[in-house]
Amino acid sequence: MSLIIDGKKIALQIKDELRAAVADLKKHHNTVPGLAVILVGNNPASKVYVSMKEKACAEIGVYSEKHLIGEDSSTEELIGLIETLNKSEKIHGILVQLPLPGHMESKKVIESVSLSKDVDCFHPYNVGRLLTGEPVISPCTPAGIQELLLKSGINPEGQHVVILGRSNIVGKPLFAMLCQKSKGANATVTLCHSRTNDIKKITSAADILIAAIGKPNFVKADMVKNDSVVIDVGTNRISDKASEKGYKIVGDVDFEDVKGKVRAISPVPGGVGPMTIAMLMKNTVNACVSRIKATGRKQQ
Question: 8-30 burial, b if ≥16 CB within 10 A, otherwise e?
Answer without folding.
Answer: eebbeebbeebbebbeebeeebe
